[in-house]
Design a protein that fits this description.
This protein is α/β, with parallel strands linked by helices and 263 residues long. Helix content is 44%, strand content 23%. The strands form three sheets. Strands 8, 9, 10, 11, 12 and 13 form a six-stranded mixed beta sheet that branches. A five-stranded mixed beta sheet has the order 5-1-6-14-7, with helices on both faces. A three-stranded antiparallel beta sheet has the order 2-3-4. Strand 3 and strand 4 form a beta hairpin. Helix 2 packs across helix 8. The radius of gyration is 30 Å and the shape is globular. The structure holds glutamine.
Length: 263
């Protein structure tokens, strides 16, 4: 090979190497571009709410979805915060432990604020009132709350109805059920003499089943609120801020009125 030819080949080789390096850089550049472009399409942050969807009209199943007052208020809160709401349907007594363990961001289940629960979780402002009432069969000899003493009482495990009735009438008279629907079935079949439960679900159950009524004398009045992990005061404040606005602009009232028509 002539000296000149060798030189030309060497130059070509160098050019080829440079071209290769440039191509690699260009590729690298475009890869970077796609990774930086992705976050603009990023999924919204999720807001995981735990509930027990056997508590109409606050939360219940309608086909595949969980609907009700709590589900709609939670959706309005998530929309305001630009978050994606995810509802987990769990046993009522798993809600607070799950929130404490960080499994769920918040619990919303017609949940009453109590001093005992405040030791485990924080609560939002209250968004609704509840009343513990007594459901009996229409022909029951339980005519008022004073006649409940010594009777067989059905409750939903770990609810305030359970806690108050166990304290007032003795554990031995209390039968605990997973949810209101099964407690009411036990009343219909005569396994218990009455069911102590929140007034709105009570109305739903009485409407859905023949031969039941609610005693006029109420048992205990209470406030419903959303619970949070004690360490997550940031989320608690954000949700509470959104809830305040939704109460002030009438959204919460609109949702409540939709599910609880005025009598
Ligand atoms: N308000 C009652 C409580 O907090 C019942 C709630 C429920 O059963 N979902 O204990």
């Amino acid at each position: 090979m002539k000296k000149n030819t060798k030189k030309i080949l060497a130059i070509l080789a160098v050019v080829a190497v440079i071209a290769g390096v440039l191509a690699a850089c260009a590729n690298g550049g475009s890869t970077d571009e796609t990774t930086t472009a992705a976050p603009t399409e990023a999924a919204k942050e999720t807001l995981v709410m735990a509930t027990n969807a056997e508590f109409p009209p606050y939360e219940f199943h309608e086909g595949e979805s969980i609907v009700g007052i709590d589900a709609e208020i939670a959706q309005a809160i998530a929309d305001k915060l630009g978050m994606e709401l995810k509802i987990e349907d769990v046993a009522f007594d798993s809600i607070i432990p799950g929130v404490q363990a960080g499994k769920y961001d918040m619990g919303m289940a017609g949940m009453t604020v109590t001093d005992e629960r405040l030791k485990s979780v924080n609560f939002s402002d209250s968004y609704a009132k509840g009343v513990q009432v007594v459901i009996v069969k229409e022909d029951s000899d339980i005519k008022s709350i004073d006649d409940v003493n010594g009777k067989k009482i059905g409750v939903q495990t770990s609810t305030t109805g359970d806690i108050y009735a166990s304290g007032d009438y003795g554990e031995e008279n209390i039968t605990k059920f997973d949810n209101g629907a099964v407690a009411v079935q036990a009343l219909l079949s005569g396994k218990v003499d009455c069911v102590i439960i929140d007034n709105e679900p009570a109305k739903s159950y009485v409407k859905a089943n023949e031969g039941l009524k609610i005693l006029e004398t109420a048992y205990v009045e209470e406030d419903y609120a959303i619970c949070f992990n004690k360490d997550d005061t940031e989320l608690q404040e954000k949700v509470n801020g959104a809830l305040k606005e939704l109460i002030a602009d009438g959204t919460v009232k609109g949702i409540v009125d939709k599910y609880i028509p005025a009598e």
